[in-house]
Amino acid sequence: MKICVLGLGYIGLPTALLFATHGCDVVGCDVKQSVVDSLNNGKIPFDEPGLSDLFIGARRRFTAKTVPEPADVFLIAVPTPLDPATKVSDLTYVRKAAGMIAPLLERDDLVVLESTVPPGTTERLVAPQLEKSGVRAGEFMLAHCPERALPGRTLHEMVYNSRVIGGYDRRSTEYAADLYRIFVRGEIHETDAKTAEFVKLMENTYRDVSIALANEFAQLSEECGVNVWSAIALANKHPRVSILNPGPGVGGHCIAIDPWFLTENSTRCKMISMAREINDSMPNYVLHLIRRLLPGVKDASIAVLGVAYKGNVDDTRESPAIKFIQLAENEGYDVRCYDPYVKDFLYPLLPLDEATAGSDCIVVLADHDCLRRIDPAAIRVRTKNLLDTRHIMDYRRWVLEGFTVRILGDGSPTLPPGEGIESRESGLSPSLSPPAPAVSISLPRPPGQEREDFL
Ligand code: SAJ
After folding, report:
1. Which domain holds residue 307?
2. I want to staple 429 with a disulfide (CB 3.0 to 4.6 A). Which of 36, 196, 412, 434 is the partner?
3. Residues in domain UDP-glucose/GDP-mannose dehydrogenase C-terminal (predicted)?
4. 77 bridge partner residues
5. Is 94 strand, coil or helix?
6. Cα–Cα dist 121/198, whole Å
7. How remote is the CA of residue 215 from the centroid of ligand 1, in Å?
């Protein structure tokens, strides 16, 4: 079977390589000559665990081109960005991809749209573009097959997650389902195209609203003097409660975007829009916490650790770090950034020691695992403040090194270190400090760290 994949990004390329390593001849097509050249020179254009090895195994059956070729199956995995001004989906690339396929389309070919789109796009926009081939929808097959792969775990999730396959008609659904069974080990759920489009948006909107609730709990916890991280851990002991993690905001090209694809044609999505507003306001909230940490500090300098939109990825699309840095610089803060995963960013990226040298507050924005291992004794700052918006750092080491530690969602102003050994050790918010008189202090350990009481 010959497959032509249009769009060799975070979803299109792994999908193309999975088909190529499962016996299909695949032509990968991307309008970016740099992507095509990189692949034809044996190099993948972005990091994703396992993708390099997969590429080696796929080389015999995979070639990259800038234009599509005739094939049995055409798969569209192009970006569907959001117009930031109007909050309306931009389907230009989808329309163009369908237009590139039309001249090559024959009866009984299958066209699959993987890109995330507003409900109705497959029938209303893609089918008519393809019918310019002279072949009618139904004579060629057409389906919407949204992906569910978590960046950072893409390959595993593409194979093992269940999949929703939505056909233009029954024949399209069944044919597309058989196509994905070539490499999908998860369950295949068959439906129609519009339902599949709607389901994809529901999944990401559900996550965005859930994160907004966690962010609102974090702000409430600060008002009530509660540690939201301890509270969430306890609430989630309930068999039917699963509260997500608060953070500095929601980034990525999916969760921050997809809910708008549902609201663009509706006036009834109050909660969905409000959740987007809450999440998009979190960078402002982080700056509010920093102001409280640095009252009156002149020419304050902030060191941002982690500019990617989430931990252990190199992707900065819609990253909350971008808005945070803009807000902080507008307020006169000097901001320097360190991120071991990201190669190019809107702002200069510095080595850790240069980014932190002379800073008045270190702020953790991306939950990269490697940040946990930073030794506070090895960095030279001007004022020893740490704001952790992800609850990942090893607080004991930072407090004992004399840092004032603030955790987003922790409920009280931080005790400055140096007011006696006990308060120095409990230089965390009192809500995390030991009950006096304490002989041993047990601080909540970040997830995955051994619990340990110490004097
Ligand atoms: N985030 C939080 N708190 C959380 C979880 C995430 O603040 O508890 C933040 C992250 O830091 C990040 C943003 O939300 O900035 C999105 O991260 P994510 O891991 O939730 O989502 P994505 O965009 O990496 O991947 C999502 C996934 N969708 C769902 O989990 C429902 C993935 O399965 C989708 O395939 C992907 O979107 C997509 O491509 O649609």
Report:
1. 210-439
2. 412
3. 303-395
4. none
5. helix
6. 10
7. 14
Residue nearest to atom 32 of ligand 1 (CA): 150
Preceding peptide of 437 cis, ω within 30°? yes
The string of pLDDT tens digits covering residues 98-114 is 999 999 999 999 999 99
> Ligand 1: distance of its center to the CA of 276 in Å?
14
Q: Which atom of ligand 1 is nearest to the CA of 258?
A: 40
Same domain, yes or no, for 264 and 369? yes
Distance CA 153, CA 158 (A): 9
Q: Last residue of some domain: 171, 186, 201?
A: 186
DSSP string, 311-377: TT----TT-HHHHHHHHHHHTT-EEEEE-SS-S--SS-B--HHHHHTT-SEEEE-S--GGGGG--GG
The number of the ligand 1 atom at minimal distance from the alpha carbon of 244 is 8
> How many residues can be counted in the chain?
455
CA of 255 to the centre of ligand 1 (A): 6
Cα–Cα distance, 112 to 145 (Å, whole number): 7
Tokens for 228? 């939201």
Mutate to test the pocket of ligand 1, among 150, 198, 368 (most ligand atoms within 8 A of CB): 150
Longest dimension (CA), the chain: 83
Residue 452 has pLDDT above 60, yes or no: no
Same domain, 134 and 252: no
* pLDDT score recorded for residue 412: 62
Q: Do residues 127 and 21 both lie within one domain? A: yes
Comparing 29-43, 109-123, 287-301, 350-364, the range with the smallest average pLDDT is 287-301
pLDDT of residue 424 exceeding 60, the answer is no
Residues 357 and 419 in one domain: yes
Around ligand 1, the residues with Cβ closer than 6 Å are: 116, 147-151, 203-204, 207, 211, 244-245, 247, 250-252, 254-255, 309-310
Residue 161, phi-psi category: left (phi > 0), alpha (psi -120 to 50), beta (remainder): beta
Residue 279 alpha carbon, nearest atom of ligand 1: 7
- Ligand 1 centre to CA of 38 (Å) is 28
The residues, any chain, with a CB within 8 Å of residue 243's CB and separated by 6 or more, are 210, 213, 214, 217, 232, 235, 236
Give CA–CA dist 230/249, Å, rounded: 20
Among the listed ranges 39-48, 62-71, 237-246, 341-350, which one has the minimum average pLDDT value?
Answer: 39-48
Sequence-distant (≥ 6) Cβ neighbours of residue 134 within 8 angstroms: none
Enter the DSSP assignment of 278.
H
Look at strands 141-144 and 163-167 and give their pairing: antiparallel
What's 139's domain CATH number? 3.40.50.720
Q: Which residues are designated catalytic?
A: 200, 254
Q: How far is CA 138 from CA 69, 115, 169, 175, 189, in A?
A: 21, 21, 7, 12, 21
User: Total domain count for the chain?
Assistant: 2
